[in-house]
Each structure stands twice: as C-alpha cells, then as structure tokens.
Design a protein that fits this description.
128 residues; alpha+beta; 3 helices; 34% strand; rod-shaped
C-alpha cells in the first residue's frame, strides 16, 4: 500500500515537472516569435524617411500587420505601433506584441527606440 502511494506520487510529480518544462519551451518559442515580429517591423520603419515617420506619427496608435506564418502557429499574435514626438528632431517608436499563451495568460513584449533626423538610436526590449 505504501509502495503504491509512493509510486503514484512519483508519477504525478514527474507529469507536473514535464508539463512545466513543456510550458517553458512554449513560452520561449512565443517570446522568440514576438521578438522577431518586433525586429522585422523596426527594420521596416528604419527605411522610412522623416516625413513618412511624421505621417505615421499623426495616425496615432496603429495595428501592425502580423505575418501569416505567425498566425498559422495557433497563437494569435497582435502588434501595435505608437510613434510620439520627444523633441522637434526626435521621435520615440514603441512596438508592443501581445499574445495569449496556452496557459491562458496574456503575454507581451515591447520594443522601444528613438529616431532622430540623423538616424535610428539604440533599441530597448522588454517582456512581461
């Protein structure tokens, strides 16, 4: 009887550990996909001129088109872009990718950068 109880507890704890490991792999894959989405959008914005960025800035918060390859993975990603004026010759670009993981929680990754008339500055990447 005691051996059967110990065996059942061992099986339950190993299944729980396996589920946690698989969830960690899934989270890592989703964060990687979100980072790639943000990086691609940032590279696309990098090719814009100052006048084009000003036009995008005036449109306010905008949904970014998510590639079909991310939609086909079963996780619905969404991405928004916000461009704000910091100074007359500097803009801040904030990109936020969001998705609901298999655990049911909403996750997000954010990429911030500053763009001056002379070019793009450093990126700052955060995730929640």
């Amino acid at each position: 009887m005691i051996a059967a109880t110990v065996l059942v507890l061992g099986i339950v704890s190993s299944i729980t550990a396996l589920q946690s490991g698989l969830q960690a792999i899934d989270n890592a894959r989703n964060y990687t996909a979100a980072a790639q989405l943000l990086q691609n959008e940032m590279e696309r914005l990098r090719l814009k001129s100052w006048a084009q960025l000003q036009t995008l800035s005036e449109s306010g918060d905008t949904a970014v088109q998510v590639p079909a390859s991310l939609k086909s993975g079963g996780i619905p990603f969404s991405c928004t872009r916000q461009i704000t004026d910091l100074k007359t010759d500097m803009k801040q670009i904030a990109l936020v990718a969001s998705w609901r993981g298999y655990d049911g929680r909403t996750h997000s990754a954010k990429l911030l950068t500053r763009y001056g008339k002379t070019g793009l500055y450093d990126y700052f990447y955060t995730s929640h």
